[in-house]
C-alpha cells in the first residue's frame, strides 16, 4: 500500500471515529421554604463521563471513556467551610432510574401522583417538597447505565454494565468522582437505595471502603432486599412462603378481610404463625396428619383472606403473584405487587396470574411526566434521548458472581459494619409491600454476622403503605421525618 493510501485510511478512521464524550452538566439556582425559612440551593444536572484505566498485556493504554452517567445534585448554598452531609441516592430494578426517590420523597420538588383510590389525572403536576431531605443533607441522584439519560459511550457495550459487579463498580466511580470534584471527602456521606438499590447500597458500602477507603456514615435502605433467596419463589425454596405471609395478612386487612381488628394485631399474629407452625408444616409435608393439615389450611386462609379450598389446592404454598390475582377475584379485581392497596382489572377474570401491576400503572405516568418536564423546564437540561424511568434493556441482568448460590450481600454488609463500626443502617418497610416484604427484611437483618453492640447501629421503621410508601401522604410525612432524624444523627 502506498504511503498516501495509508495516510488516507488513517484520516478516514479519525473522521469516522466517535467524538470524545465530555460532561454536559448544567447548574441552576433555586430556593425552597423549609422549617419556616428560605433555603437557597444550586441544582446541577447532566451526564458525566466515566473512564477506566485500560491495560493490554500489562501495558497501560490510557484512561478511556466507557459510559455517560446522568445525575442530579442539589447543594445548599451555605457558608463556605460548612460540612453538610451528602446523600447519594438511586433506585433499583435492576433497570430503574432514580426518579422515584428523587421526585417521590427526597428531592426539593415532588410529583403529585395521588394515591390508591384517588389517583391524579393527567397531565399531573409538581410541587415544592417542604419535607425534602435537602434541609439536612446535600443530595446526589444517580441513574445507572441504560436508565434515565445514562448510556454507554458511542460504540461501547451497554451490556458491560448490566450486572451485579459492574453496576457496583460504576456507581462507586460516580460517587468517588463527585466526592473528589466537589471537595467532599470530609463530609458525612450516606447511601440511599430503594428495592434492588438496597442490595446495591450494601455492596457499595463494602466496595467503597475496600477499593477507595471511602467510609460511609450510613445506609438508608428503603424497601430492602439483601438476599434474593428470601423473595424468589423457586422450586425447593419454601422460605418466601413464610416471609410473605405477614404481608398477605396486611393486604387482606386493608381490603376488609379482617373486620375491625387493628392492623398491628393482625400482622403480629401472622408473624408468629410464619415464625413457627407454618414453616414447620411446610417442612413436614406429607408427614402432617389430616387434622394437622386442616388446621394449617384454616389458619393460613384466615390470615391471608383466601378460601380454605384455595389454600388446600395450592398445597399450603401461596406464591405472591397468585395471591395478588386471587384475593379479590370475587370482585373481579386484582391487587398491586408494589403496593397491595392498589387495585386493577384484568381482561380475563379467571386468569392464574395478573398481566399488570396496578400499583405501578397507577403512578408511572405521573413520575414520567414530572421528570421529563422538570429536567427541561426547571433545571434547563436538554437531551432528546428518552428518559428511561423503567428500562427492560438491562435484562438479562448478570449474577455470574453468584453462580450456584443465592444472590446475597448479607456478608458484604456485615463485613462493612465490622470494618466500620460507625456505619449506621436505617431500614424502611411498607406493610403492603408485596415485592420486598418487611418480614423478609427482618429475617435478613437477624442474620447479619456482626457483634451484638453493632446491632445498636440498625433501626427499622414501618409504614402503612407499600414499596413506594411515600405515595401515601401520612407515610411520606413520617418517612421524611425519620430520614431527616437518621441523617442528622439523632438516636431513637
TrEMBL record:
Gene3D superfamilies noted in UniProt: alpha/beta hydrolase
InterPro entries associated with the record: AB_hydrolase_fold (IPR029058), Peptidase_S10 (IPR001563)
Entry keywords, A to Z: Carboxypeptidase, Hydrolase, Protease
GO biological process per UniProt: proteolysis
Name this protein carries in UniProt: Peptidase S10, serine carboxypeptidase
Organism lineage: Bacteria, Bacillati, Actinomycetota, Actinomycetes, Pseudonocardiales
UniProt entry tagged with the keyword Hydrolase: yes
Source organism superkingdom: Bacteria
One Gene Ontology molecular-function label: serine-type carboxypeptidase activity
Naturally occurring in which organism (per UniProt): Saccharopolyspora erythraea (strain ATCC 11635 / DSM 40517 / JCM 4748 / NBRC 13426 / NCIMB 8594 / NRRL 2338)
